[in-house]
Amino acid sequence: MTETILVVNAGSSSIKFQLFSVAAHDQLQRRLKGQIEGIGVRPRLVAKETGSEKPIDESWPAGEVATVAAALDKLVVFLRARLGTLPTAIGHRVVHGGPDYSEPTVIDEGVLDRLEAFSPLAPLHQPNNLAPIRAVRARQPHLLQVACFDTAFHRGHPEVADRYALPEKLYAEGVRRYGFHGLSYEYIAVRLPQVAPEIAKGRVIVAHLGSGASMCAIVAGKSIESTLGFTALDGLPMGTRPGQLDPGVVLYLISEKGMSAKDIERFLYNDCGLKGLSGISNDVRELLKSPDPRAKRALDYFVHRIALTTGMLAAAMSGIDALVFTAGIGENAPAIREAVARRIAWLGLDLDAEANARGETRISRQGSRVACYVIPTDEEQMIARHTLSVLRAQSATVLEEKPA
Question: How far apart (Å, rounded) are the C-alpha atoms in residues 295 and 284?
Answer without folding.
Answer: 9
